[in-house]
Structures are given as structure tokens and as C-alpha cells.
Amino acid sequence: MSDARVVAAEAVEARVRAFFEGHSVEVVVYDLGPERREVVPELRVLVVSPGPRSDSWAYISAGCWAAMEKDGDGLEFVMTAHVRDQRFIDLMAMIAYYHCGGHQLDLEHSMPIGEPWVPGSACDHLLVSLPYHHGPDLEHCPLPGGHARILWALPVTAAEIEFRRHQGHEALEQLFDEAGIIPTDPFRASVV
Prior knowledge:
The protein has one domain. Strand 7 (140-143) and strand 8 form a beta hairpin. The chain contains 6 helices and 8 strands. Helix 5 (158-167) crosses helix 6. It is α+β, with helices and mostly antiparallel strands. The mean pLDDT is 94.
């Protein structure tokens, strides 16, 4: 990993630690394996425990910006969950590989998980959205030589993705608001 990539990943980690002051932050170095390692070298997943800022777990990628930045701009991703589980660390690695491996996710994009978010969940896709749960202070992450935008990977159902395709992203988010979904509830009902 180049020095610039190390500095960028460390800057994302520092931002996350500052934002989640009072929370425990664990850094998990994630090796994607020999065939995929070069796509997101030295990928880290920051695992943030519940604390004063949030009562849920947060899983945040560090390494996507360094692998994909263009003119200093790039993305990282955050997912919130009800428990600490290796499953969510693996999902963050999946998002990082999907994004950096040619799909280039962005705001209002989605990706299939290929299976339920957790066993028994109807949510089997991820929707890239603004990190409403955490706000713009986490979303905007200045880095040496650039800026990372940390976007939310929200678990959603296939029916919700289909609705978004026809009615638009804002219409789907309005349904989420009207239904008062709890985004960390893996067993929530689909809003459509």
C-alpha cells in the first residue's frame, strides 16, 4: 500500500474516532483474498460500538477512497446494525469490492446482496443513501489531498428497489419516513 493510501485510511479512521468519541472503535484489517486483494489493498472495516452518539453498531469502510479517488474525491460506506457480528464486517468488504471492482457505487445506487441481510430478513439489497442516522458531520470527511464522502448502505428489500426504479429514490425515502422504519431492524416489513 502506498504511503498516500495509508495516510488516507488513517485519516478516515481518525475522522470516525473523532465523530464517535466515547464509543469503542475496533479496526479490522480485511484481506479480500489472493484474487481480489489488489482491488482494495489493505481494506479496513471500522467497527463502532454503541455509545453516546448512537445506540446501534456502525461498520465503516476505510480503503475505498484510496483505491478509487478521482481528483481527490471518493467514497467510503457506513452500515448500521443491531449487533456486532462478523456478517456485517463481511458485508462491508463485499460493498468495498463491488464498488472498487468496477461497479462504482454512488448516492441513490443499489447493489444486490445475493441473500438475506441476516437469515430470515426480507432485506436482500443495499441502497446507497445519505447517512441520515449520523448526519453531515460523518458524511463529509476531509482527507490529505482530497475529500471522502461516507454514504449509508441501507438494507432494503427487492420490492423496495423495484419501487425505486419506477417511482424514484425520493419517493422510496418518503415511504421509509412515513412508515417510520427502524433501519437496524433486520426483520422490518417492506414498505411496498
